[in-house]
Amino acid sequence: MVVNFAHRGASGYYPENTMIAFEWAYKMGADGIETDVQMTKDGVLILFHDEMVNRTTDGVGFIKDYTYNELNKLDAGKWFSNEFIGIKIPSVEEVLSYFKNKETAINFEIKNSVIDYKEIEEKLIDVIVNYNMENRVILSSFNHVSMVKCKKINKNIKTALLVEEKLYCPENYVKTALADGIHPHYYSINKETIRNIKKEGLFINTYTVNDANYMRYFIQGGVDGIITNYPDKLKKVIEQS
Fold first, then answer.
1. Which residues form the GP-PDE domain (predicted)?
2. Is position 144 annotated as part of the catalytic site?
């Protein structure tokens, strides 16, 4: 069965990377959520995609320059719709607490490709271990050095390399980074690529697939998971496949 990952929560319907988007992803039948981890000035791990708050809040500037309390004063919902005025940026602990007693998988993308957050890997892994959720988490990043570091810190947590371009023999490259799988953009792979990756005992979850025809193509192609903004749509396609 293909794993249905809600990209930044049910972000097609709700403001991305907010608790309401994660909660509705669960209600819509998503098997997992995908979300982005950054770190505040005072070392708190929060869930936010961009390095700057400008696009999805009423604030300005880099997350790294805000304390957690300062970030908490920003509105992370109004940009999407007036219906969501007052929604806050969640922390990693909030989402782990919400899903602790559910079966939902969590894919944390560590956003350390642009800004090198000091010891973000250690901090995130410590929180995951504290919640005893190592077996339900995948760590991913475009920073593949970071993924090697994560695997060396805790070999029990799965890692996946995020890639946007077509790679030559990606199955070989993934192994060099000690990763368990790969998260490629959907336009960078085909059924042959999927077969080659699966033959090597690696998993493949592709992003961000919002069109039902592409969903069907990748399900038929044998991917392990699909990351989408519309988990309800993907659920229907999976059920019909």
1. 2-238
2. no
Domain with 149, as residue range(s), is 3-37+91-240
Q: Count structural domains, the chain.
A: 1
Over range 229-235, report the average pLDDT.
98
pLDDT tens column, 23-63? 999 999 999 999 999 999 999 999 999 999 999 999 999 99
Residue 16: inside a domain, yes or no? yes
Kindly report the backbone phi and psi dihedral angles of residue 182, in degrees, each rounded to the nearest multiple of 5, phi listed first: -140, 140
In-domain check, residue 78: no
- Dihedral angle at the C-alpha atoms of 145, 120, 71, 113, nearest 10 degrees? -10
- Residues 137-196: pLDDT tens digits? 999 999 999 999 999 999 999 999 999 999 999 999 999 999 999 999 999 999 999 999
Cα angle: 78, vertex 82, 87; to 5 degrees: 45
Is 185 an active-site residue? Answer: no
CB burial readout 52-74, b (16+ within 10 A) else e: bbeebbebeeebeebebeebeeb
The b/e string for 115-152 (b: 16+ C-beta within 10 A; e otherwise) is eebeebbebbbebbeebebeebbbbbbbbbebbbbbbe
Q: Which of 7, 144, 183, 185 is catalytic?
A: 7
pTM of the predicted structure, to 2 decimals: 0.98
Q: Is the CB of residue 12 less than 8 Å from the CB of residue 210?
A: yes
Q: At what angle do helices 19-27 and 92-99 cross, to 10 degrees?
A: 20
d(C-alpha 238, C-alpha 54), whole Å: 36
91-134 pLDDT, tens digit per residue, is: 999 999 999 999 999 999 999 999 999 999 999 999 999 999 99
Does 138 reside within a domain? yes
